[in-house]
Every structure is written in C-alpha cells, then in structure tokens.
Amino acid sequence: MPDAMQVHASDTVAVALRGIDAGSGIAVGNSEVTLVCDIPEGHKFAIRPHSLNDRVVKYGLPIGRASAAIEPGEHVHSHNLVTALVGEQVYAAGGASEHAGSINRTDAMIWHGYRRADGRAATRNEIWILPTVGCVALTAEQIARQAEQRHAALIAAGRIDGIIAYPHPHGCSQLGDDLAGTRALLAGLAAHPNAAGVLLLGLGCESNQLEALIEAIPPSARNKVRSLSSQSAGDELADTAAIIDAMVAEAAMAEREPLPLSALVVGLKCGGSDGFSGLTANPLLGRFSEMLAAAGGTPILTEIPEIFGAEQALLDRACDAQTFKQAAALVNRFKRYYLDQGLPVSENPSPGNIAGGITTLEEKSAGAVQKAGTAPLTSVVAYGGQAIRPGLALLEAPGNDAVSSTALTAAGATLVLFTTGRGTPLGFPAPTVKIASNRALATSKAHWIDFDASAALDGPVEQVDRDFLDTLLAIASGQRTAAERGGQRAIAIWKNGVTL
After folding, report:
1. Residue limits of the SAF domain (predicted)?
2. Of 137, 135, 132, 134, which is closest to residue 164 (Cα–Cα)?
3. Looking at the domain assignment, is residue 423 inside a domain?
C-alpha cells in the first residue's frame, strides 16, 4: 500500500493512508512532497501551494477555500480550510451520463429470493408488526417475542426468516405534514416485499388512525396486511396471536427462486465516515451502483444535506428535464429547511467525521455522492414514497443514519449498503450490509462488519469488486448480515413538525 493517495489528477491535496511523520518525503503523482508536520491517517496534506481564499480540491471537486496560505507538505484541516457553501442556488442542467459500470460478472448475477404477488422481489421472508402509535410499541414487541417462541421450529428450518416488531414513539400529537410523513413512512414499510405478512397494531384514539394508514398503503400490497385496534379488542394478545399464526402459515409456503440482478432495489448509505470512506468503500458502492443501474436494477441515494456542495455533479446526470427540476428543487428545499431554522447549510460534518480527517461538508459530500458512481439519475422520490423506476433514485430524507436508512427501506430497498469508517452496530428492517472503509475497523469490529473495502488499497480493484458482488448475492439469497445476527433491527421516523 502506498503512503498517500491523490484521488484525482486535479486535486491540490493528497490523503495519508497511514500516519506519516514530519520530514518524510512522499511520492505523489510524478513529484515528491516533504511533510512539514505529522499527518494523521486519513487526513489531508497540500501537494500544491495555496494562497488565502484559494480553492482546495479533492475528488476533482472544490471542498472549500484556504483560510490561510498553505505550503506543500502542510496538514490541511479545520485550522486552514473552511467551507464555501452558500444557501439556495440556481442550478444549470447538464447532460445525462451513460455508464455500464466496471463490475462485470454476467455469469454470476443470479440470486435466490422471493417473487411477491405484486411482482417485486424480496430478500427475506418475514412477518412485520408495525404499531400505528408509540402507545402500543411495547405491546408490538411483546407480540413478536411470543410469536417467535411459538414458531421457533419454522424459523430454525428457514421456512420464515423472523417475526419482528418495529416500535417507534410517533403517531399521536402530530399535525399536518408531520403526521402525513409518519403515515407515509409506515405505509411504505407495510408494502415492503420482505414482509410476507404485516400486522398494523393500533391503539384506537391516536392521530394516526388505522383506516387512513391502510388507505395510504399501495393497493397491490394491502392483501397481505391485517390490522387490530387494541382498545376495541377483547384480548389483544390472543387476537393478534391468531392473526400472526395465520400469516406465518401462509408465509412458510413461499420458496426462494432464481432472480436476476435487475430485481434488486438497493439503498446507499454512509455513516461514521472517515478520510478513507471516499477512497475505498464509497467508490466500491459506486461501481456496484453503475452495474446495478445498467442491468435494470434500482440503487437509491438519500441523505440530501450530505450532497450539499457536490449536487451539481449529481444533477448533471439527470435523465431528463423533469428529473433535473425535481432534484434541484429537493436540494434547495432542504437548504431552505436549514435556513428557516436560522442554521447554516454547512453545519456538518460530525465530530467523528472531523477526527477521521473530513473537514468541510463539501468534502464529506464529494465523498458521499461516490456511492452512486456515475449512474444516470432517473427519479426523485418523496419521503415515504416508493422507488419504482429502474436506475438511480434520489430519495428525500435527512442524513441521520436511522431516519435515512428507514426511509430507504420504506422506498423499497431490499438491501441497505452502509459504508462506515468509524463503525456502528445498528441495522434496519432491510438486511443492512456494513462495509468498512479501513482495515482497523474491519479487524476490531468484525462482529459489526460484513465486508472490508480497504482491500482495494492493496490489490486489484477488480478482485475486490468480484468479492463484493459475491457477498451481496449471498446476503440477498439469505445469508445473514452481522446486524441480523446481532439482533440489531430498528426504525426511526423523521419528526419535523409541532408536537401537541
């Protein structure tokens, strides 16, 4: 592995791939830079001189401006690099790109999943319990525990993959768009193909009434949904047990069958990012996304505030004028959301990101958008909506890991690909594949991580791509992720309005 990497030929900084001492001569491109100070692993150093206010470039994109003169070999971080982000913008339309992707395994792109009645494909065969309101969240968990005990033999035999409750604190004391968002998100989850059967568990007096929630579920998915109002039931535990048992009996008859890669809908997510995320893990997802989109599958990108500063590169790939207009409006709407709260649009990255070598939101965004590669942008999806068009979808959701990953699942993702440089154990309703950006994390947290993308720094990228594709096809076909093995399954709903 080299000591440092210049990601793009136009970059004015390089990234240390290990901690490097001051005075070291580092070969970058066709020249050598002598470091004037120690450079921590994952952090940047200048390879060209910068004057005050000069653009600093990484990934071929500006990541901010120099707040002081910077000489070659100097550490570039929060002390001499600041954001150049502004508020809402008028974006210029570009031309959609066409890219077939660089992962090429046409001989091995078959996975084994469940084809549902509505035509969608599932990677799991589960029963989900969704409370309409937080008041019955613990009851939902109780129902799921008791049902898993009753059906332990079927689960052990692989006839069903589990009976899972997804508690949340919302559904009451909400108004307007806030309540509508909760309802849309739960309706999207209820329609998810991985849920062979869904029990909507209500209380009875909540704002999020069962009838309105059922009406929000796409008609093609309603036949698998059952509901119960706890206040109206005599013994809600006995009544729900009968409902669950009937759904389990039907789900257990399903069989996995060979399916094409195009049947996959995949969520793209990063969390706990570091200086390696944009060098290893996110580009790996980008190459896969290109291939998936070219095959007719659907990668979904979200975390809208974490594309601020890199949005033009994404907008340039819009497949038509309408998609461009919708995507540009979504980005500006999120910026306005910040500005209306009196907050700067650059209020990111997190303390963990900064410690890992990421300085500005532009830098974080330039690394984050690599998860979509160069796949053409074909659709824009509202929060709680469904991604139904092949090609890259841009989904409305914030950067918060739990909120955005839940939104990806509700949009139809049957796998969530989650890159991380600092690690997190949490998983979500769809199988959540954790991809480490660096070897230290993959080694120390092997019980969290499913794939080590840092291998791309040591060997042929093509081999890493093949290994990654094999891993994803195995997980799609039923192999458990680390989060699934650890029982790490949760949802979070975007609460952005008044609470009564």
Report:
1. 11-82
2. 137
3. yes
- The sign one gets for the Cα dihedral 402, 408, 409, 414 is negative
Cα–Cα distance measured from residue 40 to residue 472, given in angstroms and rounded to the nearest whole number: 32
**What does the pLDDT read at residue 95?**
56
pLDDT, tens digit (0-9, with 9 covering 90-100), for 391-437: 999 999 999 999 999 999 999 999 999 999 999 999 999 999 999 99
**HSE on the CB side for 183, CA within 13 Å?**
21
CATH number of the CATH domain containing 73: 2.30.130.110
pLDDT per position as a tens digit, 144-184: 999 999 999 999 999 999 999 999 999 999 999 999 999 99
| Residues 393 and 301 sit within 8 Å (Cβ to Cβ) | yes
Q: Global pTM?
A: 0.94
pLDDT interval class at 203 (50, 70, 90):
very high
Residues 120, 18 share a domain = no
Residues 6 or more apart whose Cβ sits within 8 Å of residue 173: 207, 499, 500
Q: Are residues 179 and 242 in the same domain?
A: yes
pLDDT at 259: 97
Together in a domain, 58 and 174: no
Residue 405 φ then ψ, to 5°: -70, -35
Residue at 400 is within a domain? yes
Average pLDDT over residues 286-302: 97
Nearest C-alpha neighbor of 249 from the set 127, 142, 421: 127
- Say if residue 422 is in the same domain as residue 274: yes
Domain count, the chain: 3
- Cβ contacts of 229 within 8 Å, gap of 6 or more: 202, 203, 204, 210
* Interval 362-387: pLDDT, tens: 999 999 999 999 999 999 999 999 99
Q: What is the pLDDT of residue 94?
A: 66
Q: Please compute the mean of the pLDDT values over residues 340-366 and round it to a whole number.
A: 90
Q: Is residue 197 within 8 Å of 226, Cβ to Cβ? A: yes
Cα separations (Å) of 492 from 44, 46, 337, 414? 34, 40, 20, 17
CB atoms within 10 A of CB 2: 13
Pairing of strands 451-452, 432-436: parallel
Domain limit, last residue, from 206, 227, 257: 257
- Label the pairing between strands 225-229 and 75-76: unpaired
Give tens-digit pLDDT for 438-448. Answer: 999 999 999 99
Contact between 25 and 33 (Cβ < 8 Å): yes
- Quick one: DSSP state of residue 221? G
Indicate whether 283 and 377 sit together in one domain. Answer: yes
Measured in Å, how far apart are the chain's first and last C-alpha atoms? 56
196, two tokens: 């062979």
Q: Domain for residue 498, yes or no? A: no
